[in-house]
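Notes on consecutive records. When two proteins share a document, each keeps its own sequence and its own token line. Never mix them. Below: protein one.
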Amino acid sequence: MSLVAREKKSATVEAMSSPTHSFNLRSWLLSWEIYLLVLVAAFLRLYQIHTTEFDGDQAMILGMARYAIEHGLWIATSNYASIRIVNPPGIIYLLLIPAWISANPVSAAIFTALCAILAVLLTYFFVRRYYGRLAATIAALLYATATKAVFYSRFSWNQNMLPLFVLLLFFCLFWGVVERRKGWFGPAVFLIGLLVQLHATGAYMIAPFLLAVCLAPKTIRWRDVLLGAVLLLISYAPYLIWEISTHFSDVAILLTPTNRPTLVDNWALVFYQLMISPYEVPFTNTHSLLYKLVPFIGWLRNTMTILLITAAVMALLKAVWPTKIATTAQQKTIPVLGAIGRWWLDLCSTPYRCGLLILLVWQLVMFALVRHSLPLYLHYFIIFMPGPFILIGIFIAKVVLWFRERGSWNVLVSAAMVLLSLFIVFAQFAGTTADVLDMVQGNFHDHARSNPYYNDLASLQHALTDADQLAQKQHLERVYIAADRANALAISYLASQMHTPTTIFNCKECLVLPTHTTGPVAMLVSPYSTFVDALLKQFTQAKLVDSPPRLGGDPFRLYVVSNPDQLPSARQTFSNQLQLFDTHLRLIKFNNASWQVSHWGFLHAKPLSFNSTYTYMMTASPASQSKLTSKGLCELSSLHPGDELLMAFRENSATLPLKVTVRYQESRPYDLPFGPLALETGVDQITPWTTLKIMNGNGATLLSPATGVAPAH
């Protein structure tokens, strides 16, 4: 069956006032291009998916889904947005499916990739239904091979689910506006609500929705309005309960001025163009496979931009140009408002033009982001996908059909357009394949991919598995993990699946050790936590046994650690939580700076639990110079009685004693009570800072300055 044959059949749709679109599933499934689409989309989105990104956001949303399943909770919110409001719970409800199947984060990544593959198929079905087989094949292949579309399909994140539901929304809109059928309004309202739950940019879909309402008001029934209101209320009910309980604090944040200047710039256009480009400009990663292809695919960026602009102009002309032109005499006798009304009635009576106008409005609302007061990010433009590829597919198909209908020589031009389309698809596929291979092979710099740095799931799981197996093989009682801001939440989620008891601590200024009676333990140190290495070398017997590799950055370091110090009797006890072993500080030099280290021990136990932390903050200042304050912070995922804590303070005075105060805080997930139910939220329940006091009631202790100690190397 020819790809162009369907174009001839659908060409008359432009002139039809009430088009009918046949849907023969059996004949469509016999179309060879569908299987090519599935093969290409699946390869690019599922190849070595175990190397998916797994940072704090991914750990948080999947952890919330698992937490809800394990504790039988309804879900009121998801995680925090960048503007510090809590998002609605849509993404968590979606992730209940993979979370129920497996606790392994790979399941969530596969689920996201499968939804993206389904979005590619829906692109094909949507365009084929309304614009023909050739347009559908070109649009879907362009979308299937687009670099950024593939990138956002390979890891779980709220907004990565947008394209699937955007396409479902446009099926609803075209059902009412183009096919003039009833029953589309209620599902469309629900889908817009879901899009807003996934990301605030989903609100931009209100524009094509309102246009659809204006173009096809007779297809909307009162029961459709009621259905939409009920579906919207049900989907937002848990979130409304949360907002009511917080007196609509998130709404207040949204309505509060940002105190930032309003900017008018071209960043929206830059990001929009990047979504259809094979690489960022300038592309400076000389170690990547994609860099080697840049000379051969560099033309894609401008070519896709020109095709999109041309396609948008063509669609605009077809949408606004009336099908019946009034004579000059009629134009003179018709008032301005009458002419506009006549044009509007003509537009509403031409479903084909209405459909093009809705597609255009979907893309044109992007210009609203040209004026902004908040920073723009590339993922804000996922909401417009796969619109550009649909417009380009329609344009190329129309050009091919126009030339094919005008004689034998013009057939060569139409064939050239088809070949150009195939050439673009092949070039995109090559560039995207190189980008995927770069990601799974680590041909990138982790600090350039994310802030503070990028973490992939395979590397994290490999490092934790190595530590777990080392502990089991050598009969070590515990595993200690020195985490940092980039990986703490991800490691905390994965550590709950380890067989060996685990303690995770934030290693910026502290080191947690077992007591000397425990014997050797395994300690996994984060890639850039070199201060921990210095502390281990200075104060323990540590043997480096492995360096688990990471994609795109420095490796972890795995030690077997023994604590050689036999503890003296505790000098002071703080609120039955913490004890001070030595009133003398010890000196360590690191990165051309001097640090003074204090020695403490834990007295109480706290279990490892999802998103729960226990934090000690120590403030040290010279006894007679309170302005020279140094702080040490240690955040732990669990507490084990008998464990020791080394807290370091940057040296301010080498001769004066330090006055040290200790404060303690706990953070755990907050479940909102609602009658007999409990609603999970993405909010932390944080206790106030409590100052720990010595048994004599004093809230501070004096530590003697460090004496000469050999520096760490």
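Protein two starts on the next line and is unrelated to protein one.
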Amino acid sequence: MWDTLKNISKNGGGKTRYLKEAGRLHVIGEFGRLYEQQYAVALFNKVRFDIEGGGGPQPQLLHRKVPLENRSIFSGAIFQFLEENKKWRNRFFFVPDTYNINYYDNKTSHERGLQPKGTINCAGYKVLSSMDQYWELLNNSLPGVKAKVGQSPILKCATQFPVILWHPYARHYYFCVATLKEQQKWFAVFQDCVRHTNDGLSEEDKVQTPAFTDAVRLYRQAHGHYGTWEMMCGTPPQILANLVMETLLPEIRELITPRLKGKMQERQRNWMLICDAVYSLVVRQAQAQYEAVVESCEAGRPPLEASIRTDMDQIITSKEHVTNKIKAAVLPKAEKLLKVSIQPYISSILEALMDPTSRGFTEVRDVFFRELVDMSKNTVNDGDKDKVGEHMEKISMLAFHPVKMQSCYEKVEVLSLDGLQQRFDVSSPSVFVQRAQILMREQMDNAVYTFEQILHQSLEGQGSEGLCNTIQRCQDRVLKKFDYDSSTVRKRFFREALLQIFIPYMLKQLTPSVASELPRFQELIFEDFSRFILVENIFEEVVLLSVMKDIMMAVKEAAVQRRHNLYRDSIVMTNSDPNLHLLGDSSTIDWAEEYGSGQAQGEKAADGDETAQRRRRLKQVVSMIQVDGTPVQVNESCLEVSVPASVPKESESASDSLKAAPSSDEAGAAEVVSNAGGKSETLAQDGETVQINDSETGKKEKVKD
């Protein structure tokens, strides 16, 4: 690879500099100008909303402010393929509440508070469970460099159960496990990490987030890219880096492909290494540039906001005047396009969205209901508050349990827009699938949190008698609220999804005939207000207004017919609890501590010590993966992990003492790793078997490749 890069630097230096300037600086510079424009507009919209307020039904369920406080998601051991020596090694993985995956040489390194060997941010990744899926994506990434029949792949999975993290630009990660059950659990955990990190834009920020998304959208539209974009995922710097790579990658591919030498596997591997190196550089530079733009805008926010509040009425009047002028020019064309190309498809697309999404929300309700039924049954058999607290400790994080929520997520993954993707420039339904899954998780957590608060209030001063009836009453109240909020959330999701499908298509069709007319409308805006009123934004608002009526009517008609258990807009819950919102300000309930044994009380007292407070125990959402038929080793338990007060750097000697790896020249040799649990695992890259020897159980397991 390095010879390839040297040749590129020597023979294509001029073009490399062109790529650096045109691909990176041009994109970031143009985005920065758009962001500054959209920042002022977003600030105006935010201030106006604060003054005028907004309508819409109020949610019935409570919302947890810090969902994963004092929690981690998962930890466990899995075999990872190491690129540097082409071998598989058993490593310990820990997923904190940030969903960034940390991996260590072993569990002991993590428990000692050492720095992780690496961290994986899963934004933009796809989780694959078969090598065939991976080869297909890999072969499509570099045209002209494809595997032929009979050729050896770039790596050979050591078992029949791989789990792969694939990214179009960044490094790929390869894992494998010994059983199908383990594969399914790790797949669900990694999928949840991808789902969470993809959702990296804060909805709480009403200025920076809309300014960023509008700037990205306008930039892509200016370059002919309308419709949904799969790589709109992660934090703003990651999204901005994806925007750069969208332009830069084809040019790098054209430059580098002819210079890749060697066997097919080497060319593929070198291409992936080059992509990862370029992407890492772009992410770092995009982050620096983005932070500089945001800092500049935030510094100028106070005078802007003061100007908006002073001239709010005049700005609104001026905007309405310009809007009416643009309506007169745009609406006739928009309505004609709407009648011919949009209205015939609204009902079919809405049905395609409603069915899998509603099935997913129904499954969320069923999973929640089954957990409460199990708790009620156990309370009847062995009913006391300690038992209730034990069950509630498990249920409290149900929404963030990727394995238990997997059945809910799978319902919506069948969403398909076949036949409509090319017409409306929808690259993939994954954008809508992921959004629906995020909403499903939020609804589950809202239901669980509301049930927690109502049950906790009901248990105050109550003895062990009648616990089952108390649980039943709280359950019925929460399920009614869930049904109402589920309908509201889904209707909003359907409207937003239809707008995401239709608006880009309409803009693409209307822009060629309207773009030349827009500059003259800018002259109607006073110079003092020109930062808050942009004709491009008003044009899009007019297009949105033209199609919004039909979308609202379609969703309303579905609700009137009670399809998929949607409620009519006129329905308001009459039995809503007027004082329920007061419980939302309550502190997080620690069920194990409040209704647990004396050990929990001892831990509570120990919290007074500063050192003990810093090293408190994290409660883990998902328990350790365990192969059926094997006992749980005490030192392999992953139910609780400690939070270190500080993170020292892992020494090389400590790392080296935990492994006994042969030299890289010994082709096909096995790597033997001794871990804290007394196990030794041998995985041969070129061999046909995997031998796992457990010194404590004396069992050996062979898995054919």
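For the record: Residues 1-23, 598-617, 625-705 have pLDDT under 50 and may be disordered.
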